[in-house]
Amino acid sequence: MRDLLAGWGYSDYHAGRLWSYLYRQQVSDLAEMTELRPELGQRLAAETCLGSLATQREIQSGDGYTRKFLLELPDGQAIETVLMAFHGRATVCVSTQAGCAMGCVFCATGQMGFQRHLTPGEIVAQVLHVTRLLSLSSHKFPQFPGNSRNSKELEGQAISGGLLRNNLHQSAPSASHSLRNVVLMGMGEPLHNFEATRAAVQILTDDSGLAIAPRFITLSTVGLVPAIYRLADEGWPVRLAVSLHAATDEERAALVPIARKWPLSELMAACRYYVEKRQRRIFFEWALIAGQNDTPEQAHALGRLLHGLDAHVNLIPLNLTAGYEGRPSDPAAVRRFQSILAEYNLPSTVRQRRGLDIDAGCGQLRHGLTATDEQRISG
Fold first, then answer.
1. DSSP E strands: which ranges in the chain?
2. Is 270 helix (H, G, I), strand (E, B) or coil?
3. What is the per-residue pLDDT for 344?
4. Which of 14, 38, 62, 182 is disulfide-compatible with 10, CB 3.0–4.6 A?
């Protein structure tokens, strides 16, 4: 932005003022930028556009704590963004592509195929969309039933063994929420759109703008090995989560086709390099599919695979999609799986499943609306 305005003959002061309007005040109309020089405002209006996205649909879950937005891109493509409320704070799940080229069989986005990469502005615009809505009284979330017990991580509770207790009743109740967490886990593979994702992260974390703490940004990848090495070498400050889902090459390739290109030996070497280079924990995501990857054999294989690595496993009972016949694991299988991981001193979390009634859960985002969505809109 400084370079753009410098080319027009304006100093860094004007770039800073414009930046503040966009990310501090979150102005969505150039006409509201009253302190800009009139001639600068006119040129901005003629040669640039603000990165706001039109809302095609907004659907709210039955409990009121999750909202899904179908946002229209300038070329008519559409993406889905999910806003989730927790006690006193909110998390936004952001898309980085329209569609996805990775083809994970249980993921609705993977089933729809790849359309195109998003620009940095289109990624950031999703975050601005929800921050603006959170400032409106009409978009307040309902109060949680609360008690005196506090928790730093309502989204899931890390345990060494046993099943996650109901964590809807943690912290004091609050209907006021501010955005704290950004998860790059929506439509698309962030590391497939490396440059745009990096630029978006830089904007989101800039201290003079939205100033989202890097430790509250999580990037999820299916395991693009060269990009993981690059991520480590470039020192991105975000948290890295790798979608694993199986602990043997044959079984992983059946779920995640990219595993045929980069087997587990290469993926784990990249993950270990990342941990050693960045000196930070790595997270692994595991969609628990009944009778397929929730067996004791897979749990032991996972424990051996991650042995000695500073890692944490996020367990997510499978969310149903129309294009995949698998079913989520039952609670007994989840308990058994976690208890085996505990034998390897491997911490794990059973993630709270959110927005399933509006297809807003992990792996359910896609370009389009289900019959359930249409009924909720019309009702």
1. 54-60, 66-72, 78-86, 89-93, 97-99, 114-117, 156-159, 178-184, 217-221, 239-243, 282-288, 311-317, 348-351
2. helix
3. 97
4. 14
The string of pLDDT tens digits covering residues 39-73 is 999 999 999 988 679 998 888 877 778 898 999 99
**Residue 241, SS3 per DSSP:** strand
CB 159 within 8 A of CB 348: yes
Catalytic entry in 47, 80, 251, 271: 80
In tens, the pLDDT along 319-353 reads: 777 777 888 899 999 999 999 999 999 999 997 65
Q: Which of 100, 107, 271, 362 is catalytic?
A: 362
The model's pLDDT over 244-256, given as tens digits with 9 standing for 90+, comes to: 999 999 999 999 9
Assess whether 362 carries a catalytic annotation.
yes
pTM listed for this prediction: 0.85
* Long-range own/partner contacts, residues 57-62 (CB < 8 A, 24 or more apart): 57/369, 57/373, 57/377, 59/358, 59/360, 59/369, 59/373, 59/376, 59/377, 60/358, 60/376, 61/354, 61/355, 61/356, 61/357, 61/358, 61/360, 62/357
Tokens standing for residue 191: 């590391």
Residue 80, CA distances (Å) to 59, 144, 340 in order? 11, 25, 36
212 contacts 253 by C-beta, under 8 angstroms? no
The amino acid at 48: T
How far is residue 188's CA from residue 114's CA, in Å, rounded to a whole number? 8
Cβ atoms of 298 and 250 within 8 Å: the answer is no
Structure tokens that stand for 187 in this block: 């439509």
Q: Report the chain's mean pLDDT, rounded to a whole number.
A: 84
3-state secondary structure of 286: strand
C-alpha closest to that of 201 among 168, 169, 239, 175: 239
As a whole number of angstroms, the distance between CA 317 and CA 286 comes to: 8
